[in-house]
Specification:
The structure holds two protein chains of two kinds.
Chain A lengths: L4 H6 L1 H9 L15 H6 L5 H10 L7 E3 L1 H8 L9 E5 L10 H14 L4 E5 L3 H13 L2 E9 L7 H12 L3 E6 L4 H12 L2 E2 L5 H22 L5 E5 L4 H13 L5 E7 L22 H9 L19 E5 L1 H15 L9 H9 L8 E4 L11 H10 L3 E5 L9 E5 L8 E2 L2 H9 L9 H11 L3 H13 L1
Parallel strand pairs in A: 2-10, 3-4, 3-6, 4-5, 7-8, 7-10, 8-9, 11-12
Antiparallel strand pairs in A: 1-2, 9-13
Chain B lengths: L6 E9 L10 H4 L3 E9 L8 E5 L5 E9 L12 H15 L5
The chains are: A alpha/beta, B alpha+beta.
């Protein structure tokens, strides 16, 4: 068979099956659903083994610290008695500098165990660095596939830094121009090399994050005698939220509110060559967050293990300027240089805390490493070079792709709620021409975390829209 | 002339505009889908020649020779005065303005 676009895409399922070592067919129900929990538990990883693998690889057990100064700063703008205590899980302390090492640890372990010679991951973000680092540690070959350049050969400094980091661990980095055909080249590489697909969305990719939720629950209980009232998670592909929420729930923190946060990039098209370098965030934004929330199986495996609507209580957005503002605040007031993209949930938490009582606790569940290229300084410098105006004012006036509005006071740094009903309806749209069986509806109840009556009502609304 | 076995960066067109996926924005569909990859040069060549390389994982790739001994150019960018303003704003909201 040739390597034309259509030929390769038609071999998608076969290539995937070989490269993940999972036969997804066996989890499928008749109808629209599949057995999610069976898929999540169909492997040899128990919690003890996961913790052992991660600990041996310098992953996990990251510090959970109270941001006393940022809490104080937030309370300046909160009503009396309001302003929850803000805690931060310093995931930058993981091998390779982000929580993504938790995911990579299990994927790479599995690849080695199944006898693959190497691993491939499609990512221009921290996950690439994590897979490359873990592959180096177990002696596997590694290829990282990045969407890197627009047609003018321009790339975000953050992506170029990630390429450098992957190469520093001995990985090969394949850089591509803008477009969803990345998946096509990814399939060719999987087919030609026979390497393992270290997908972000495999059960291993999500299981690995459950320890993050577990650590938050256990440490909070030990330190404060209770589970946190809320945990804020930066949301893109949905895996971070899914894994963290599952970990919290398994540990007993069933009442902890799970809040997703993304950078608002509305108006910018993710597959657009001309929009590519107009954004200042390559992940953690609505361009990934919303589509993956409303259709998780758009990922690079047949059934994504990241299914955020099952666990999400609220979904908020903040603008780019607010995340830069918080990145600078974290450095200036707490002495922590982190992010910027990983600080999306921190920006949201700063504002969300002001709606909560002062004896309550809100946990920001990640940070990420920072450095040349991947830092507020080069990212704002790059934005300016691309004609993006940097202004001070009300962040709600920001127009992604035209300007970045830094709040002229932290008082103006506010989150915006996304409509959960709208998100669920968007998920249901796919099925509006299908006669749903009882089994389908049961599946949807779990997928959308609402009851049967709700599903039927929402479905009616979708059909009438 | 670039010596055999030099570490280089090549570029290859993977899909011409007409071969690209159908469901993509017009401005993306107008341009070819390209790949850049680094590796060791098989034969002595000139810049912009079509060459063969062996990548870090031992794969052989063909493409146009774009750069020999590719450097990392990332840094901290140009001076961004807005960051200083931001820093002062945060400090003054937190601790109050400094007295003279």
């Amino acid at each position: 068979m040739s390597n034309t676009y259509n030929d390769i895409m038609s071999q998608r399922n076969e290539i995937m099956k070989k490269s993940v070592g999972i036969d997804y067919d066996k989890y499928e129900f008749d109808g629209i659903g599949f057995d999610y929990e069976m898929m999540m538990n169909d492997h040899d990883f128990d919690l003890e083994l996961i913790i052992k693998i991660q600990t041996e690889n310098m992953v996990g057990n990251t510090p959970l610290i109270e941001l006393k100064n940022l809490t104080k700063y937030a309370r300046k703008f909160a009503d009396k008695g309001k302003g929850a205590r803000i805690f931060l899980k310093d995931e930058a302390a993981n091998l390779s500098g982000s929580f993504k090492a938790r995911r990579a640890a299990l994927s790479v372990y599995q690849a080695k165990k199944l006898g693959y010679k190497g691993v491939i991951a499609a990512t221009s973000g921290n996950y690439g660095a994590a897979v490359a680092a873990l592959a180096a540690k177990v002696g596997l070959e590694c290829i990282i596939v990045q969407e890197a350049f627009d047609s003018k050969n321009l790339s975000q400094p953050e992506i170029l830094e990630k390429a450098r980091k992957c190469e520093s661990f001995g990985a090969e980095v394949v850089q591509l121009s803008v477009g969803p055909e990345l998946f096509y080249q990814f399939l060719i590489l999987l087919k030609d090399t026979g390497y393992f697909n270290a997908s972000l969305y495999s059960p291993y990719g999500i299981k690995g994050i459950e320890t993050l939720g577990l650590e938050i629950a256990e440490e909070m209980l030990k330190k404060e005698g209770k589970y946190p009232e809320a945990v804020v998670v930066t949301n893109a592909g949905g895996g971070n939220l899914t894994g963290t929420a599952r970990g919290l729930k398994n540990a007993g923190a069933t009442d902890t509110k799970i809040i997703a946060a993304s950078v608002d990039l509305s108006g910018l098209h993710m597959a657009s060559d001309s929009d590519f370098n107009k954004k200042s965030f390559t992940t953690g934004h609505t361009g990934f967050g919303i589509p993956f929330t409303t259709f998780p199986d758009r990922s690079d495996v047949p059934r994504s293990a990241g299914r955020p609507l099952r666990y999400m209580d609220e979904y908020v957005t903040v603008n780019q300027g607010s995340v830069f503002f918080m990145t600078e605040s974290l450095a200036t007031l707490e002495g922590m240089e982190r992010g910027p993209a990983g600080n999306t949930s921190l920006a949201a938490a700063f504002s969300l805390a002001q709606e909560m009582n002062e004896d309550e606790i809100i946990v920001v569940q990640e940070t990420e490493y920072t450095g040349a290229g991947k830092h507020i300084q080069p990212q704002l410098s790059f934005a300016k070079k691309n004609g993006i105006e940097i202004l001070f004012g009300n962040p709600f006036d920001e127009i992604p792709g035209k300007n970045i509005i830094l709040p002229s006071s932290a008082k103006l740094l506010k989150h915006k709620y996304l409509d959960m009903t709208k998100l669920r309806k968007s998920y249901l749209k796919r099925y509006c021409n299908i006669d749903l069986s009882n089994k389908d509806i049961l599946f949807l109840e779990e997928e959308l975390n609402i009851d049967k009556q709700n599903i039927i009502e929402l479905m009616m609304e979708v059909k009438n829209d | 002339m670039i010596d055999k076995n030099s570490y280089v960066r090549i570029r290859k067109t993977l899909l011409k505009p007409e071969e690209r996926a159908s469901n993509i924005p017009a401005e993306t569909k107008e341009v070819p889908f390209k790949m850049w990859v680094k590796g060791y040069l098989h034969d002595e060549s000139d810049l912009f020649d079509i060459v063969k390389i062996t990548t870090e994982t031992g794969r052989v790739e063909t493409g146009r020779l774009k750069e020999a001994f590719p450097p990392y150019k990332i840094g901290y960018g140009d001076f961004v005065p807005e960051i200083l303003k931001l820093r002062h704003l945060i400090k003054s909201e937190m601790y109050g303005d400094k007295d003279e």
